[in-house]
Amino acid sequence: MSQALIRATASWLKQLETTRVLSTSFRSLYATQTSVHGVPVEVHNESGKFRVVVTKELPGDRWLQILQQAGCRVEVSKHHDTILSNATIKKLIGQKCDGVIGQLTEDWGAELFEALRSAGGKAYSNYAVGYNNVKVEEATKRKIPVGNTPGVLTETTAELAAALTLAAARRVPEADVFMRAGKYKGWLPTLFVGQLLQNKTVGIIGAGRIGAAYARMMVEGHKMNLVYYDPYPNKKLEQYIKQYGELLRHNGEPPVVVKRVESIEEVLREADVVSLHCNLDKATHHLINKERLALMKPTAVLINAARGPVIDEAALVAHLKANPEFRCGLDVFEDEPAMKPGLAEQPNAVIVPHIASASMWTRAGMATLAAANVAGVLQGFPVWPKPDNILPFIEKPVASVPHAAPSIVNAKDLGLPLAADV
Q1: Which residues are paired to 134 by β-bridges?
Q2: In terms of Cα–Cα distance, which of 359, 364, 358 is closest to 395?
Q3: Can you tell me the distance from the alpha carbon of 33 to that of 29, in angstroms, rounded to the nearest whole number?
Q4: In whole angstroms, what is the distance from residue 138 CA to residue 127 CA?
Q5: Residue 225: which residues within 8 A CB-CB, separation 6 or more?
Q6: For residue range 7-34, what is the model confidence (pLDDT) as tens digits?
Q7: Which residues are catalytic?
Q8: Three-state SS annotation for the chain
Q9: Which of 191, 218, 262, 374 is the most buried (most CB within 10 A)?
Q10: How far apart are the first and last CA of the chain?
Q11: Contact 277, 301 (CB under 8 A)
Q12: pLDDT of residue 130
C-alpha cells in the first residue's frame, strides 16, 4: 500500500471517529457508567420509573428521546462481545426489568422470556423486521408483547441487493483487490471482463415490498425484463412495469416485459440475474440447492439479501468452484457470522457482513420503532393499525409521535386493542 493511500486512509478513519464521537455526544453528556451483575452499562434518565435494557448501542438519539419521554430509565449494554450470550442477557435483565430491546443475533426463546417475565417484564422488541431468532409463542405464553421494525428497510435493502448485483456482474471487488496489490501494469482487452446487464432478464423469488423495489431498480435502471415467482401475484408491480414498457415503446425503444411464472425452476432457467427476497421457513430452507443451481445459466448472478439458510451454502461453494463465470453476491450466510469453508476464497463471490439495512435513515428508524414499541406497551398504548405506514413515528417531532406501539407481531394472540378501536 502506498504511503499516500496510508495517509489518506488514516485521515478518513480519524474523521470517521470524530463523527462517531459527535453523534453520541448528546447521549454521553447526560449518561452515567455503571455495571449490572458485572456487565458494563450506560445509564440514561436514572430516575425513570420503567427500567428498559438495550442489549447493543443503537444509532441516532431519537429512540432514546422516545424512551425518556415515556419515563424510562434506559440501560445500554457496553459489553465487549459482539453477540451476547443468554447468560449475559439474563444478567442485564436482573431482578427488575420492564422491557428489552434486543438483537436479531440473540436467542429469544423460553429461557430469556422466562427471565424477563420473572423480572416483571412487559415488553420486548427485536431491532429488526425479521424475528426468526424469537420464539414468539414463548413470549405469548408469558403475556409479553413482541415488537419488530417494519416499513423502513425496503429501499435500503433493495439498494444493497442492486449494489451486490452490479459489483458481482462487473467484477468490482476482484478489480479492487488487483489494484491494491499493485498488479495493474496497463489496460488490456481481456482484463476483468464481466457481464452487461442492460436489456437482460432479472428474476426475483419473492415479490413483496423489497423484491418489488429491487425489481423496479433493475428494470428502470437497466431496462431489464422481469420474470418472478411468488405464490401471490403482485399486480401493482406488473402494472408499473407494463406502463414503463409503454413509455419505452413510445420513445422508440424496445419495451420491457414482466412475467409471473409458476415455479422457481422457470425463474432459474430464464434469468441472467436471480435475487432472493423470500421469508425463511421450512419450505424455503435450502431453497437454492445443488440441483437448482445446476439449472441456472453458467454466467448467471445469484443475489441473497434475504436470509442465509435460503441457500445451501456448501452447494454454492462447490458451484462457484466448478463454474468460474458464475457469480454471487451475499449479504447473509447460513451459519452467520461464520461462512462455509471455501466461500471466502472464491473470487467470483461478493460477500458483505449483513449490511443490507445499513443506511443511517434505516438503522436509526429501526431504533425509533423498537423504542416506540417498548414505550407504547409500557404506557398502555394500543397497537398501531397501519404497520405499512410507520412514517408518523419516524418523521414527526418526538412530542407528536402517535400514542401507539407501531408493530406488535403477537398483538392478536394477546388480544391487544388497535389504535382505531380506542
Answers
A1: 108
A2: 364
A3: 11
A4: 18
A5: 199, 200, 201, 202, 219, 256, 257, 258, 259
A6: 444 444 444 444 444 444 445 557 999 9
A7: 307, 336, 354
A8: CCHHHHHHHHHHHHHHHHHHHHHCHHHHHCCEEEEECCEEEEEECCCCCEEEEECCCCCCCHHHHHHHHCCEEEEEECCCCCCCCHHHHHHHHCCCCCEEEECCCCCECHHHHHHHHHCCCCEEEECCCCCCCECHHHHHHCCCCEECCCCCCHHHHHHHHHHHHHHHHCCHHHHHHHHHCCCCCCCCCCCCCCCCCCCCEEEEECCCHHHHHHHHHHHHHHCCEEEEECCCCCHHHHHHHHHHHHHHHHCCCCCCCEEECCCHHHHHHHCCEEEECCCCCCCCCCCECHHHHCCCCCCCEEEECCCHHHECHHHHHHHHHHCCCCEEEECCCCECCECCCCHHHCCCEEECCCCCCCCHHHHHHHHHHHHHHHHHHHCCCCECCCCCCCHHHHHCCHHHCCCCECCECCHHHHCCCEHHHC
A9: 374
A10: 63
A11: no
A12: 87
pLDDT of the residue at 364: 96
Q: Quick one: pLDDT at residue 11?
A: 47
Q: Are 51 and 98 in contact (CB under 8 A)?
A: yes
How many angstroms separate the Cα of 347 from the Cα of each of 16, 19, 31, 134, 201? 29, 34, 46, 35, 24
Question: How far is residue 261's CA from residue 205's CA, in Å, rounded to a whole number?
Answer: 10
Per the rule left: phi > 0, alpha: psi between -120 and 50, beta: everything else, 130 is beta
User: The whole model's pTM is what?
Assistant: 0.85
Residue type, 81: D
Q: What is the pLDDT of residue 421?
A: 52
Q: The C-alpha cell of 333 is what? A: 450466510
Read off the amino acid at residue 359: S
Q: How far apart are CA 75 and CA 45, in angstroms?
A: 9
Q: Nearest to residue 90, comparing CAs of 61, 110, 64?
A: 110
Q: Which residues of the chain have pLDDT under 50?
A: 1-2, 4-26, 422
